[in-house]
Design brief:
The chain is α/β, with parallel strands linked by helices. It is built from 15 helices and 30 strands. It folds into 3 domains: about 90 residues, Beta-grasp domain (Ubiquitin-like (UB roll), Roll), CATH 3.10.20; about 400 residues, Nucleotidyltransferase, domain 5 (2-Layer Sandwich), CATH 3.30.420.480; about 100 residues, no CATH class. The protein is globular and about 95 Å long. The termini are far apart.
Length: about 600
């Protein structure tokens, strides 16, 4: 028997949805396409999915605890969306602090490809006599092509026979043997296109490329629709515990990529089916989810991960580009060092240098790679999303209203800040929380062990213990104080210790000192927006006195672009992945020592000799 239905309205989006009685509110928000914070993936732990009931009623789940919301929030009609079911028609307001706005998207640093040699090319078709071959009326030659004999479907072969005008054939050499995937008259010819995709845990970024010239035409981005199922990789692995939930996450990723493609082709004035090749770079979990591979084994230490890059027909994944186009997935290395990290290495060029380099990419997960053209070693660390502003009481992504940078006067404790695209702040993003941590230490608000000073005039006792008031309510967009709690600091300390400890392990394993490193490549938003002086002062990165620092932007997207416009870079990506050593910190005894030493600010004297 079908359940009775009800109507739910979400404001200020003015979205109306009809759902069965008993639907979980968070599921209704997901169905309606309302992007709402949900760091824990709906377990009732993070308190980020707060909504305000303005009309109707709803029912709290039995496991809902009073501690999830403050008494003031309860009095104002706040609920956690993952902890209530809908029982009758209702209207909810999504408060500004719970909304996910489009984040500021970091594009790639300039990457020069000397020789454009894509795996999909177009050739003029020469129709030749059959030379007496039995059963054949003609043969085909691709002018200027000298590779292996390509395959061609019967339907396209008949097109060659039926046409009375010159033709062009589009040849894909992604697979072996190569395959002719499209035929068109010379008179109708237009450029062929490819798309490079960075499939990030939080955002999906793509660029449209003219494959004839290698020119980047358009760039677009969107939030990864998987985000409402959990912001951390482990949370998403836990969600994908059945074929149905795995399919849900796979489709969310496909839809996110298709959203980006729809945007960029619309602005470029072309059709999706004009796209003949696509390259995707993502971490190992994203790689598994987009391909529909059960990721649960990735939770096991030293899990055996294939380092062979995959390429699949676009139509089998449900992408709306040319159905016979191939989708190339950059290779993985380990459980949490994936194609995005390989893209970083390709973008940095460290694989060509005789000098020792360190590559650091700290996002939802942290990947760190040490080496040069002769060898490379990698680790991944559970830095968590703290460096992206998530998991922090008043944390948010780098979008409108986020506090981007903070300066705390060490003598007066007076706070100054810069805010992204707004006069009033509604939260603090990763670069801001790093600035704040370093500034709090300098001003005596925080001690070397990461504990708040209860005697400081800007520190008070809140509902969860001591908290530092960064901005008072009358100066915020939310109408609430923006605070940094002791729990937030503990989370940040854990993240910084994981990152610094991971670097310490690599240096220790290879008997290197901080002075041996000549180049530090910083990928992603961490490298682009973080004040590196504060990152060192707080102890996230060691001091590297002899190293040059190089922000490389979105290295994942740059790597995907390189493999899109050059077959040679696909060989480079595979070579880098195969030769890279991986040290699993989950079972490494050195990591416990390095992590423990990094739980102080800044950390070990060997890594921070001047502080």
């Amino acid at each position: 028997m079908q359940k009775p239905s009800l109507r739910v309205i979400f404001q200020p989006m003015n979205k109306v949805l009809t759902v069965p009685v008993g639907t979980l509110l968070l599921d209704a928000l997901r169905t309606a396409g309302v992007a709402i914070e949900s760091v824990c993936g709906g377990k009732g732990l993070c308190r980020k999915c707060r909504v305000i009931l303005t009309k109707g009623t709803c029912t709290s789940l039995p496991q809902m605890e009073a501690s999830h919301l403050t008494p003031e929030e309860v009095a104002q009609g706040y609920y956690c969306a993952c902890q209530v079911t809908l029982t009758e028609d209702a209207e909810f307001t999504i408060p500004v602090e719970s909304r996910i706005d489009s984040p500021r998207i970091l594009l790639s640093a300039d990457m020069k490809i000397e020789t454009i040699s894509p795996c999909v090319r177009r050739y003029r078709v020469d129709i030749l006599p059959s030379d007496g071959l039995p059963g054949a009326s003609f043969s085909i030659r691709l002018a200027g092509y000298s590779g292996a004999r390509p395959r061609v479907r019967d339907s396209l072969y008949r097109t060659f026979h039926a046409s009375s005008e010159p033709l062009l054939a589009t040849l894909s050499s992604v697979q072996t043997p190569p395959e002719i995937i499209a035929v068109e008259p010379v008179s109708d010819a237009h450029p062929i296109y490819g798309v490079a995709i960075d499939l990030g845990t939080t955002t999906v970024v793509g660029c449209l490329v003219n494959l004839d010239s290698g020119m980047l035409l358009e760039t677009g981005s969107t939030l990864n629709r998987q985000i409402t199922y959990g912001e951390e990789l482990i949370t998403r692995i836990g969600f994908a515990d059945s074929p149905d939930t795995l399919a849900t996450l796979r489709q969310a990723a496909v839809d996110s990529i298709d959203t980006v493609i729809s945007d960029i082709v619309s602005r470029a004035g072309i059709q999706k089916t004009d796209i003949m090749d696509m390259c995707i770079a993502g971490n190992t979990v994203m790689h598994h989810l987009i391909l529909g591979i059960d990721p649960r084994y990735l939770e096991m230490a030293n899990a055996d991960i294939s380092r062979i890059p995959l390429n699949k027909p676009a139509h089998t994944a449900g992408f709306s580009i040319h159905p016979d186009a191939r989708v190339y997935y950059l290779p993985n290395v380990s459980r949490f060092v994936g194609g995005d990290a390989i893209g970083d290495v390709v973008a940095s060029g460290m694989y060509t240098s005789p000098e020792l380099s360190l590559l650091v990419d700290l996002g939802t997960n942290g990947e760190i790679i040490l080496g040069n053209k002769e060898w490379m070693a990698s680790v991944s660390c559970a830095s968590g999303p703290a460096f992206e502003g998530a998991g922090i009481t008043c944390g948010m992504r780098a979008s409108k209203g986020a506090i981007e940078h903070v300066r705390i006067d060490p003598l007066t404790s007076e706070v100054s800040m810069t805010i992204i695209g707004s006069d009033l702040p509604r939260g603090i993003c990763g670069s801001g929380i790093i600035d704040a941590g370093a500034g709090m230490v300098a001003a005596g608000i925080l001690d070397f062990a990461g504990k708040l000073n209860g005697d400081h005039p800007h520190v008070r006792r809140g509902s969860e213990g001591l908290e530092y008031v960064l901005v008072h309510a009358d100066r915020t967009a939310t109408g609430h104080d923006l605070v940094i709690t002791q729990r937030d600091i503990d989370y940040l300390m854990d993240s910084k210790a994981a990152a610094c400890g991971a670097i310490g392990v690599l240096l220790k394993k290879y008997k290197l000192t901080i002075s041996d490193i000549r180049h530090v490549y910083l990928a992603g938003a961490f490298g682009a927006y973080t004040d590196m002086g504060n990152a060192v002062r707080f102890g996230i990165l060691p001091a590297f006195p002899q190293a040059a620092f190089h922000p490389i932007g979105n290295g994942s997207l740059s790597g995907a672009y390189a493999t899109l416009v050059s077959c040679n870079y696909r060989i480079i990506a595979e070579t880098v992945a195969k030769k890279m050593v991986y040290i699993d910190l989950l079972v490494d005894t050195d990591f416990i020592e390095e992590y423990s030493a990094a739980l102080y600010i800044p950390g070990k004297k060997e890594l921070f000799p001047a502080q």
